[in-house]
Amino acid sequence: MSLPVFLSGDVAGAADGSLLELSGDEGRHAVVVRRIRSGEQVVLTDGGGTAATCEVVATTKASLTARVLSSSVTPREEPAVTVVQAIPKGDRGELAVEMLTEVGVDRIVPWAAARCVAVWRDERIEKSLAKWRATSREAAKQSRRVWFPSVTGVASTDDVAGLLASADLAVVLHEAATASLAGLAVPVAGSVVVVVGPEGGLGEEELAAFSSATVVRLGSSVLRTSTAGVAAVSALLSRTPRW
């Protein structure tokens, strides 16, 4: 059985045998929700490639202290995968973020596409980004990742065009495309960027702005915006050394 994973900023550089304290929200979650007790083992990670297997030696009502048994640093996997996710309505954004994190995406970019049903304005921007980031963080721990994906600020169409132009493989999903994912040459290193459009579809101006990318379809069925990204990334990663 896999050990539970918790996020700790003190892991990097911690020597075997040293003591680490897990407090705050993570410590409270460990002892109150997960009911971690002395003598149990946990994995602490900084989300940046460093992970330590630790034995819990003491707990309080909202924290724990653990001794480092062993630690390791894992290089970031390649190719790096970025998904540009048009902002969906309701909680489908968190669903997309959760699944994308689980399959191994390295960066998630919320995109304010022209036909997005949901619109983030003013204070809603920060609240929505906080939800996406919390969802990604929890999904990364659940899937035992030691490299946590980043969730960027909201991107404009011009921002997305710039990401596509600099990628080693740039893909835009579109139900009317004639090309398929199967015909793409997937790099074993570098960067892959996948754009997932909104419920209302991509506009002609957006497609024109994304001219540096290859426009492809995902079979004969049309997937929801919240599931299309994970399907595309899974298909691409299955043709790399990462999977």
Which strand order spans the largest sheet, edge to edge or round the barrel? 8-7-6-11-9-12-10
Element pattern in H and E: EEHEEEEHEHEHEEEHEH
CATH superfamily of the largest domain: SPOUT methyltransferase, trefoil knot domain
- CATH third-level topology of the largest domain: Alpha/beta knot
CATH architecture tag of the largest domain: 3-Layer(aba) Sandwich
**Rg, please?**
20 Å
Q: If you had to describe this structure to a student in words, what would you say it looks like?
A:
This protein has 243 residues and is an alpha/beta fold. It folds into two domains: 5-73, Hypothetical PUA domain-like, domain 1 (Ribosomal Protein L25, Chain P, Beta Barrel); 80-237, Alpha/beta knot (3-Layer(aba) Sandwich), CATH 3.40.1280. 29% of the residues lie in helices and 26% in strands. The chain contains six helices and twelve strands. The protein has helices at residues 24-33, 92-103, 123-142, 157-166, 204-209, 225-237; strands spanning 5-7, 19-22, 41-45, 50-59, 64-73, 80-86, 107-111, 150-151, 169-173, 179-180, 191-196, 214-217. The strands form two sheets. A seven-stranded parallel sheet has the order 8-7-6-11-9-12-10, sandwiched between helices. It is elongated. The model has no long low-confidence stretch (mean pLDDT 94).
